[in-house]
Amino acid sequence: MSRIETGDTVELHYTSRTLEGGVLETSRPRDPLRFVAGGDDVIPGLSEAVIGMALGEMKTVTLRPDEAFGRRRDTWKCHAPREALPHGTASGTQLAVTLDGESLDVWVARVSEEEVTLDANHPLADETLVIEFEIMGHETSATPVA
Fold first, then answer.
1. Which of 6, 25, 22, 11 is CA-nearest to residue 122?
2. The pTM is what?
3. Is the pLDDT of residue 38 over 60?
4. Residue 146 pLDDT
């Protein structure tokens, strides 16, 4: 049975939890998550954790913030006039904004009558995550030799 190597494509089902055990998200009701092992399509700790595993294997990993969604940065918050956002925007809403020509996901942290606070930190920044996962698919990146 082949083992997953950096650059291979992986499919897995996962459940992410807080350290206290609360479920944050699970992929079970939908298609498996598909990404390149060792790449930057998913959080670093998960991308690296699959390397060396095989189809059908299960694993549970505990990921520190630097292996997951990073550390919270106060400088990644800003204020904007409320009328600059779509009508009905509420706290917790995720928006895509363009800054210096690059698309960036931000979350509406607070809404007042005059302004909103936008936060580019992921809501799970500073969190340690526990992720249980099972390898459901594996495609090697090796090119067949003719």
1. 25
2. 0.81
3. yes
4. 42
